[in-house]
Design goal:
210 residues; alpha+beta; Transferase(Phosphotransferase), domain 1; two-stranded antiparallel sheet; 36% helix; 11% strand
Length: 210
């Protein structure tokens, strides 16, 4: 089912075929010649808000597609966003993606520490809303050049995450506009059911459509 889903949508890196021998499994993937968004972010230090908004719009389209097919992504970050030759963004690397169906939860602890949602850390069960938390973290990183919760060890990152996004004083960050701040805060609500996009995908248009 996952393989079928990953061959059909414009904002998801296409998987054309798989092969295997006695030792390895090989995947024939779509070539995205622009490379990883992370490389662009590293070289430019941060993205202008207009550029970040375009990248996020592509990402939101991909997440909406996956969620409508019952799939939670669980590893949203610039390293997993590829740039096509025409400048569009596609999600790749579905190692943590899982089919959970609509209205269901999963309890597997996984993801990149800087992007993991509080309910994953607390083992409360998570659903598509965990991807929206990660989208808020991604927004912060694209605008500033680094994720908001950083530390030398994963456990320290998790402790910072559980203190919440408002403990960081985002209003004083010169790279984050008022509209972007509102977007991040609405995505990074501690209660998953209160996050922007949960059950109301159209709400995103207020923030990412100019």
């Amino acid at each position: 089912y996952l393989v079928h889903v990953f061959t059909l949508f414009s904002f998801v890196s296409r998987l054309f075929n798989t092969y295997r021998d006695n030792k390895y499994v090989y995947m024939l993937l779509e070539a995205c010649l622009g490379g990883e968004l992370w490389t662009i972010l590293r070289d430019s230090h941060h993205l202008e808000e207009r550029t970040a908004r375009f990248c996020l719009a592509c990402c939101i389209e991909a997440l909406d597609y996956l969620h409508r097919h019952g799939i939670v992504y669980r590893d949203l970050k610039p390293e997993n966003m590829l740039v096509t030759s025409k400048g569009y963004i596609k999600l790749c690397d579905f190692g943590f993606a899982k089919y959970i169906g609509i209205g269901q939860k999963t309890w597997t602890f996984c993801g990149t520490p800087e992007y993991v949602a509080p309910e994953v850390i607390l083992n409360q069960g998570h659903d598509f809303a965990a991807d929206y938390w990660s989208l808020g973290i991604l927004t912060f990183e694209l605008l500033t050049g680094a994720p908001p919760f950083q530390a030398s060890e994963p456990i320290k990152i998790y402790m910072k995450t559980l203190k919440g996004i408002d403990a960081l004083g985002l209003a004083q960050n010169k790279y984050i506009s008022l509209k972007a701040l509102q977007f991040i805060r609405r995505l990074c609500r501690f209660n998953p059911s209160e996050r922007l996009g949960v059950g109301k995908y159209a709400e995103f248009k207020k923030y990412v459509v100019t």
